[in-house]
Design a protein that fits this description.
By secondary structure, the protein is α+β, with helices and mostly antiparallel strands. The protein has a single domain (2-303), classed as Ribosomal Protein S5, domain 2, CATH 3.30.230.120. Helix content is 39%, strand content 24%. It has helices at 57-71, 94-109, 117-124, 132-139, 182-191, 196-216, 219-233, 238-241, 248-259, 281-292, and strands spanning 2-16, 28-46, 51-54, 78-84, 142-145, 157-161, 168-174, 264-267, 274-278, 298-303. Strands 1, 2, 3, 4, 5 and 6 form a six-stranded mixed beta sheet that branches. The chain has a four-stranded antiparallel beta sheet with strand order 8-9-7-10. Helix 1 (57-71) links the parallel strand 3 and strand 4. Helix 1 packs across helix 2 and helix 6 (196-216) packs antiparallel against helix 7. 47% of the residues are buried.
Length: 311
Amino acid sequence: MTRVMAPSRLHFGLMNVSPRVDETSRRFGGVGLMIDQPGVAVTARPAEAWQFEGMLASRAQVFAHRFLASLEFPTRPLQVLVERCPAEHTGLGVGTQLGLAVARAIAVELELPEMDAVELARRTGRGERSAIGVHGFDRGGLVVEEGKLPVDLISPLAHCILLPEDWRVAVFVPHLHTAWHGPREREVFASAETDSSIADTLHLIAFERIVPAAVAGDIDAFGDAVHQFNRIAGSPFAGAQGGVYSSREAAELIERIRRLGVAGVGQSSWGPAVFAIVKSPDRAGWLVQELKSSARGWSARESIGHRVERT
């Protein structure tokens, strides 16, 4: 049996969503953080016939079929079980993490040659826009990617930084459904455009403020930069969303956390998940308790930045 564990992904925002202007311009690009919890766990084991069970089993089956079709040779059947997985469309990057975990579990169980996350993404159809979750699947940590040129299937990695071990992330997810996916997402992207000055500003914040603060372990500078990046990155979608965040509830919670003195607060991807990055486990625990009574309708948990130690 093979078990693959994958983290969740927080996405701070894309740097450039404008249509491509020439062959040298990069689209998308962005900054995000991998977190341990909630995470994905997938197992694969020999079976008499292909079986897909557990949470999001039908989605796992789609990813498995894409991966198997890319191999172009017969394989023996497996039982694929999704043991643990967050809900879809909450801003935690579930699609990519589940797809890569399923492909990795099948590949290992079938004793195929080792494939990195970029190769698994290519074979399962992930990384069309953002590559944060792709690069973070293997590496963990804070991920910064430049954006895609026309020749790129997956946006190349610019930086991967492990944040200080004491830092924690409080993640708040409302008990509501979001429609910011599928056809609606494609429609919004088709009409969104990033002013060149906004793209330049986001690039500067990412590379000259977020990255240096992460390397230095400066939580205040890091938090301020992440919050500003997140707000500005939401501006191309303000017309569709009614603001820089995808819901009034998310905007109100972010403002409430900022008033409590936490700098690094924002919405992950389309939301509705809201994240708050703090300097210690005690601070994270205090924040979750502080908001339990006032943030009714939201579930909250403490997580840590996902760490993959390389030797």
